[in-house]
Target: Glycosyltransferase 2-like domain-containing protein
Amino acid sequence: MACTRRTKTLVSTCVILSGMTNIVCLLYVGWVTNYIANIYIKVPMPLPERKLEGDKRGDTLRIMERLDRLENVVNQHIQETPGRGDDSQPDTSFSDSSLFAHWGQELGPDNRRVALKMFQYYGYNAYLSDRLSLERPIPDLRPDGCKNVTYPLNLPQMSIVFIFVNEALSVIQRSIRSAINRTPSHLLKEIILVDDNSNNNELKEKLQDFVSETNSQRPGFIKMVRHAKQEGLIRSRVSGWRAATAPVVALFDAHVEFNVGWAEPVLERIKEDRTRIISPSFDNIKYDTFEIEEYPLSAQGFDWELWCRYLNPPKLWWHKGNKSAPIQSPALIGCFVVDRLYFEEIGLLDEGMEVYGGENVELGIRVWQCGGSVEVLPCARIAHIERAHKPYTEDLTSHVRRNALRVAEVWMDEFKSHVYMAWNIPLEDSGIDIGDISERKALRKRLQCKTFRWYLVNIYPEMRMYSDTIAYGVLKNSLKNDLCLDQGPDNDNVPILYLCHGMTPQVRVTSLSPCTTAGGSISPDLIYHLCILFPSYTHPCLQMLAQLDYHLISAVSSSSYRSLQPITSEQIVFRDCLTLL
Model:
């Protein structure tokens, strides 16, 4: 059972910077208050500019403030997003924006500025989208075994729900046209558009004209739901479900394109068992060129922060040798199809969550623990735009973090500590208001759902469990307290000292194993790629190699495990050291 007991313990590793001239202790900051290991560190020169000032209001509040401030900085630099509805010129410093890496070299300066401004606003190449056909052909990416399957004629009808906020009009229109053209008309009862209080004027009159034109051929076929205030993705999906009338409801983003033959396999699986929730297999619409990129077949899971992730299909699926077979999936990426009444019986989505993130994971966990199942269908393929940045909110992380804690408290039993560890949040007095969860706990009791341990053992065995954790937090330089041990850039996995921010690259877990980590500690995988341990230990961590130029996957002498080899640059290396009692 995972725990965060704050107690003195035996720890067998230390951290050393080459060429060290100063020896100081590093301590966990915030809620981890004990000496965990002897840490020796040299502060590199020149020192980075101090940007995150401390305060005197307590460790927890200080860490949370640093998290929030870092998130704002990260989002400001990553999103390339001007204010919505802002008519100002785009920042020309983005002339080397990722938008133009593979597209637009032939455009003149004026058109580049227009394209860039639209890209900053939407997160994808709306300039190009406006110039593509609304009924363009896309490649059939289904496995060969899907193309000759015959389906029953008496499949249930479905309602397709598209939710959006400030989406490009042409992208919404293309989503609608592909749904109409590639779904048999007798199976598609209606399309419901949920506008989550967009302020984009194109989505008022022009979208209404498009809806009216379509409805002139099929009266009442497209319904509009407009929110008076912005509710977020989660509650918008529920709004669409409430407006639906078909036996089956498909809940999608309004930036997708459907492939041929997608609907029949989905409806057949739900007709066979109404407690199945179905996800199509997703391909990518590249945000810059709008080309369709085939994604490999996968299941859908999550990490301990509850960010969704793609998984290899389970071994049993591979052993069948049938690439058209349904794939058992621990969770959902976000878009899914469900029996309308069963969705209500199982509790819809958690409307106590905010904006975006975690609702898909929560639904997958809940369905499995409460007697249903989740499948990904290789024969149902849908292409989805993966934005370069998400313009509809400036701080997704704070919402995902709050939502993740709701999931942990309702569904994860003793494993909720893993989520707190992943987010570097204390189990008590976190300072985060997750809202009232009494109704969700009552739902779990009423449905007589299984434990989260059952879910991990039977549905998500790939998920790593941390049964020997004794503490978590960050390692901080006590002589330069704005610097922390950090995993370093992902491209070389060299640990570094970096300004303390307390997010994933700096969070580490101390356990009874000799496995020492530098960021990325709460890995969902059994392979612990940011971990160093002694070769004699059998835990599935990276083993150490005797090398002259040490880095994260290097180590000390493999013969004595105590001596240091000469090294040529200032990098952190590990050696066996004395224990603390």
